[in-house]
């Protein structure tokens, strides 16, 4: 079938309804052939033929225009069902590719005995049929999906979002907050070597097309960005991976920006507290005129007791997003960070083209950030960003966002838009979440038990396909088993400046200090010489001393993997930080320093049996 078929005849330009009306008036004797054909705009010879058919078999008479060479494989009702099926699969994060859908169309045509001209060798519908299908249904298009982890797919559910918006609406209504007093802050990374690249013009058929970059990986700095719902942008704070500040870091900075340094270039609790003090000055927050700051659940935000105390003293209300929901709820993530990274990549490409023979270092990042930062907040106004993420009616379950569909496989609802100015109207009655609304799993990471967790959601009884429907050929995934969860405490949406959360955080910090003191209070016990005689007939397992390797210090707030390193039985010092000789227990095979175990480094025949194994 050709993609752009042009009819070469004017046959069958008449309407089916007009033909039926003309046939009825002729059969009833109200008009003749010529008058009925002229009045209803149909060919007279065709009218005579249909009148003869109706007089011959009036019960089975139907006006059929399906004459010609080209016919659609599926009926209009079947294609509409296919469109709904594709939308349903995409909303559940299991969207079909072109190849998948062409294979599905071939299976449906074979099993339902539809006349087709598909290629039986490849067992797929043709590309021309696919293009014509998309033209007949312009609501469908080919999109590049964004990666969504299982934790985010399960964490963004109706209960978690309802709890967050309940706290948000309650806070807005309690303090009578306007748009200029609602802020959102987040961190993003800026590297000398951006990941994404814009498509360029090149020779058609060329095997490989390249573009110049500054390094294979490059260094990364962190930018702290904040704006209000009224469109006020706070100058960013840049964090460089250095020990000391340099004046060269401040060259070309956006006006009012601040430079900080950390060992890794990441945000820390101390640096975020420094930024927060600047935020208090920028927002002019006081206890009499409080402001609301929305932030994610990073440890530098939620586990920072100094931050919470400073916020309570200055009238700043901290509201944390639910875990694994910032990709949908946080305004900065939704519509600011992507334009910023796109414009920043364009600036790096322009800089390399204008400076041949040079590469970008972290000293140029400040200058390159100025134009992308301005373009981003001009292209995406903060008022639009935050307004698009405001909640629907809190008491109307029918307004649940369609993005909840991955956690509700059998529900598909589209929400109406609600403006920030209507937040107070939706808080007249308290939010109630019934037990039936609680989804499984709850927000957070999920441990999926087995790969065979998904099963068919059942056959669609109202399907227009007589033998095989799309839901049966390729079932919509549906979780049937109860997902087991790890037994650990997870983050939650909460007002961080509230008294219950503050007391809970202080209690957790006190308990942590007690446990650390108990570990530090354990004395090193040295095995006496009498233990040497007990294991004289066992071979010694000794680890040769190695040269100490300098390890880059990582801040306590950043992610580190020291738990995978070997630690001493007695002093708990890690192997990677030691320069002494080590020896292993012959029973439990755990390691210890020679000095801690009371072993002479020159004694090659000594065998260690630790006190735990002896007891």
From TrEMBL:
Stored SUPFAM superfamilies: FYVE/PHD zinc finger, Homeodomain-like
Official protein name in the record: Uncharacterized protein LOC115883165
Keyword presence, DNA-binding: yes
InterPro entries listed in its UniProt record: CenT-Element_Derived, DDE_SF_endonuclease_dom, Homeodomain-like_sf, HTH_CenpB_DNA-bd_dom, HTH_Psq, Znf_FYVE_PHD, Znf_RING/FYVE/PHD
Biased composition annotated in UniProt, kind: Basic residues: 537-551
Pfam families named among the record's database cross-references: DDE_1 (PF03184), HTH_psq (PF05225)
Native organism taxonomy: Eukaryota, Metazoa, Ecdysozoa, Arthropoda, Hexapoda
Annotated Low complexity bias: 406-418
Gene: LOC115883165
Compartments, as annotated in UniProt: Nucleus
């Amino acid at each position: 079938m050709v993609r752009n078929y042009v009819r070469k005849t004017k046959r069958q330009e008449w309407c089916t309804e007009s033909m039926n009306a003309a046939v009825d008036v002729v059969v009833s004797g109200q008009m003749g052939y010529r008058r009925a054909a002229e009045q209803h705009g149909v060919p007279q010879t065709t009218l005579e033929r249909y009148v003869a058919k109706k007089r011959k078999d009036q019960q089975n008479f139907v006006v059929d225009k399906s004459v010609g060479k080209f016919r659609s494989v599926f009926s209009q009702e079947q294609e509409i069902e296919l469109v709904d099926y594709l939308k349903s699969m995409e909303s559940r994060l299991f969207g079909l590719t072109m190849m998948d859908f062409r294979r599905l169309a071939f299976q449906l045509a074979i099993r339902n005995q539809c006349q087709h001209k598909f290629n039986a060798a490849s067992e797929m519908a043709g590309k021309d049929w696919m293009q014509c299908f998309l033209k007949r249904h312009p609501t469908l298009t080919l999109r590049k999906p964004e990666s969504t982890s299982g934790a985010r797919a399960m964490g963004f559910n109706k209960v978690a979002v309802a709890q967050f918006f309940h706290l948000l609406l309650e806070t807005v209504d309690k303090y009578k907050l306007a748009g200029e007093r609602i802020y959102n802050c987040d961190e993003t990374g800026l590297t000398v070597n951006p990941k994404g690249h814009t498509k360029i013009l090149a020779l058609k058929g060329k095997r490989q097309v390249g573009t110049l970059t500054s390094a294979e990986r490059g260094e990364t700095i962190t930018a702290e960005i904040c704006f209000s719902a009224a469109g006020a942008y706070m100058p960013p704070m840049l964090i460089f991976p250095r020990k000391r500040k340099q004046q060269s870091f401040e060259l070309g900075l956006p006006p009012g920006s601040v430079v900080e340094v950390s060992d890794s270039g990441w945000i820390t609790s101390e640096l975020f507290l420094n930024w927060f003090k600047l935020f208090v000055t920028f927002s002019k927050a006081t206890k009499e005129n409080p402001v609301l700051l929305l932030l994610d659940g990073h440890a530098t935000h939620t586990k920072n007791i100094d931050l919470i105390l400073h916020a309570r003293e200055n009238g700043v209300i901290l509201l944390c997003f639910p875990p694994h929901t910032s990709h949908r709820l946080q305004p900065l993530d939704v519509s600011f960070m992507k334009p910023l990274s796109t414009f920043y990549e364009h600036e790096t490409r322009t800089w390399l083209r204008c400076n041949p023979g040079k590469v970008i270092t972290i000293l140029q990042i400040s200058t390159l950030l100025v134009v992308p930062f301005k373009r981003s907040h001009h292209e995406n106004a903060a008022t639009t960003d935050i307004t698009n993420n405001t909640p629907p009616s809190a008491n109307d379950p029918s307004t649940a966002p369609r993005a909840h569909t991955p956690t509700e496989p059998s529900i598909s609802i589209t929400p109406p838009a609600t403006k920030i100015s209507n937040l107070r109207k939706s808080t007249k009655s308290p939010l109630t979440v019934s037990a039936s609304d609680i989804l499984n799993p709850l927000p957070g990471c999920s441990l999926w038990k087995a790969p065979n967790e998904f099963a068919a959601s059942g056959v669609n009884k109202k399907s227009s396909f007589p033998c095989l429907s799309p839901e049966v050929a390729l079932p919509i995934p549906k979780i049937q088993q109860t997902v087991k969860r790890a037994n650990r405490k997870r983050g939650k949406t909460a007002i961080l400046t509230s008294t219950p959360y503050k007391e809970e955080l202080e209690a957790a910090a006190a308990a942590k200090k007690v446990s650390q003191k108990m570990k530090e209070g354990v004395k090193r016990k040295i095995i006496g010489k009498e233990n040497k005689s007990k294991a004289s007939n066992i071979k010694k397992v000794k680890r040769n001393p190695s040269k100490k390797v300098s390890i880059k210090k990582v801040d306590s707030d950043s992610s580190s993997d020291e738990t995978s390193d070997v630690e001493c039985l007695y002093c708990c010092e890690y192997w990677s930080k030691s320069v002494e000789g080590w020896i292993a227990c012959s029973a439990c095979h755990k390691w210890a320093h020679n000095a801690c175990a009371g072993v002479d480094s020159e004694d090659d025949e000594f065998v260690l049996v630790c006190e735990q194994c002896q007891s």
